[in-house]
Amino acid sequence: MNFRALTPEDIEVFSEAISNFFNLMTRQAAQVKTAYVFKEAAPILWNDFNGLIQVSGGFRGSIAFSAPRGLLNEILIVMGEADKTDAHFLDIVGEIANQLSGRARKHFGEALDISTPISCERDGFPLHTTAQGPAYAIPLTWGPYEAHLVVHLDLVRKG
């Protein structure tokens, strides 16, 4: 298969997905900042909790959401969840990655097969991806917290 890297329009899909997620789930807007390209050969996840989705089916690579404990704690409060254990933080960060990937799937089509989320704490696993194009970090702030969506995808080139 012949693949292409993401375009600025593709990145915008993910930025909008972040905005939509926070508006729907928390009724508080996230401030999505300008995406940037990782300089490292493989992107790293650096926050307290990380959720990772591997993709396939005309795509190759991964989508990850990396967030600090405080942000996840506040999201759980807004959702009315009393359980604030590390296990619950791992569940919610994986679910956020899953929802953001699902929103991307609506744009890119059903060919975007997404895996079950994998969650870990900081430095819990290295991010191995099959994508060969550049990886992008999309930073966001929500209240006093900063989190990142890390998108490392190649798309099948049409035609």
Briefly note the CATH topology name: Chemotaxis protein chec
Helix content: 25-40%
Count of folded domains: 1
Overall average residue pLDDT: 85
Radius of gyration: 15 Å
Question: Could you list some keywords that capture this structure?
Answer:
Chemotaxis protein chec; nine-stranded antiparallel sheet; 3 helices
Short description, anyone?
This protein has helices at residues 8-26, 69-78, 86-108; strands at 3-5, 31-32, 36-37, 49-56, 59-67, 113-114, 118-121, 136-142, 145-156. The protein has three helices and nine strands, in the order βαββββααββββ.
How does this model look, in words?
The structure is a single chain. The chain has 159 residues and is of the alpha+beta class. It has a single domain, classed as 3-Layer(aba) Sandwich (Chemotaxis protein chec). Helices cover 33% and strands 31% of the residues. Strands 1, 2, 3, 4, 5, 6, 7, 8 and 9 form a nine-stranded antiparallel beta sheet that branches. It is globular, with a radius of gyration of 15 Å. It starts with a strand and ends with a strand.
Strand-helix topology:
Elements: E1 3-5, H1 8-26, E2 31-32, E3 36-37, E4 49-56, E5 59-67, H2 69-78, H3 86-108, E6 113-114, E7 118-121, E8 136-142, E9 145-156
Helix pairs in contact: 1-3
